Amino acid sequence: MSRFFHSAYSGLTPYTPGEQPQDKHYIKLNTNESPFPPAPGVLRAVNEAEARELRLYSDPELKSLKKQLSESFQVDVSEVFVGNGSDECLNYAFMAFGEDGIAFPDITYSFYKVIARLNNVRADQKPLQADFTIRISDYLGTPCAEGGFSGIGRAIVLANPNAPTGIPITHAEISKLCEANEDHVVVIDEAYVDFADTALSAVPLTKHYPNLLVTQTFSKSRSLAGARVGFAIGNAALIQDLETLRNSNNPYNVNRISMKCAVEALKDTAYFEENCRRIRENRAFTKEQLEKLSFRVLESQTNFVFAESMQLSGQALYQALKERGVLVRHFNDPRISNFNRITIGSREEMEQFIKTVKEILEQI
Ligand SMILES: *Cc1c(COP(=O)(O)O)cnc(C)c1O
Which of 89, 94, 160, 189 should be mutated for ligand 1, with most atoms under 8 A from CB? Predict the structure, then answer.
């Protein structure tokens, strides 16, 4: 740290992204990217003609992408916000709606804690239950005499399904959260929602709850992690607030090529759905194989599984896999340090992963 660094940030612990090693080829199951290339229309959109257009600024109103999103999600254009990754949408949501603090689980996407600190938003972390599910009553406040709940007096952010557990909450629970906390915003981070077995997105609920903001990303199910595009859907007044912050910070937040890629990715629903189906199939395969090797595997509705070996610590397994060219994600938090988060890749990658785990277990 230089002696010039603003004291407001001197205690900041930045987010630790998953490794993106360049030293050799790994089977990369550590950052929940898609094993499949972007849709064919995306590959065609990235061409020389488009590169020539880079001399021009991108559209600060993001019109083409907002229009495509509004059609795909059956909402008005005024109900759509587009960010440089959903991380940017989340950061603006914390800035916009975090005045009274924000509540989220102790075990969840670790970026929440970082952006809370960055924006001087008080973080209220509620422990997950022993089975790693969210206790909804922690987010409702006290019951009122006339029915309903008092609310908890601050905003809420929940990843649904949660990460790194992979466990979802229901529409009924989200409705309850919005009704109990009508004076604060409830943010539902749906980075993994497309991998659920049945329709899980809370986007339709945004019509009923003016305090509900849903974020999604192109990084996982749409194979565009490197393009950095995410979006938020909610009541037009909430979107307006996010736009005020975006236009005060970086009105050209999504570049021309990424915007084009995102539009093309959204159009190809058949390719998208087939890829999600393949991930679900490979997830079931991976869970079954790990359980045969006496792992405990949480019931996941995402493109990863969270698994604990009965023979090897989480750290030891992570290390042994890495030495053999397979990268998974390990977290040091004591509650989950015996687990690893394993991204679901192609069938070949998952077969290779299982084979490597077997070799490791045979050697101990
Ligand atoms: C990956 C992820 C995101 C954001 O990803 P972007 O690439 O910034 O869109 C948001 N929330 C969770 C829980 C994630 O895992």
Answer: 189
296 DSSP β-pair partners: 308
- d(CA 264, CA 224) in angstroms, rounded, equals 11
Strands in 102-105's sheet, in edge-to-edge order, are 80-83, 230-234, 212-217, 186-189, 155-159, 102-105, 123-126
Distance between CA 177 and CA 175 in Å, rounded? 5
Residue 271 CA to ligand 1 centre (angstroms): 21
* Residues 200, 338: Cα–Cα separation, whole Å: 29
3-class secondary-structure state, position 187: strand
Residue with CA closest to ligand 1 atom 14: 191
State pTM to two decimals. Answer: 0.98
pLDDT of residue 129: 98
Task: Tell me the per-residue pLDDT of 128-180, one tens digit each, with 9 for 90 and over.
Answer: 999 999 999 999 999 999 889 999 999 999 999 999 999 999 999 999 999 99
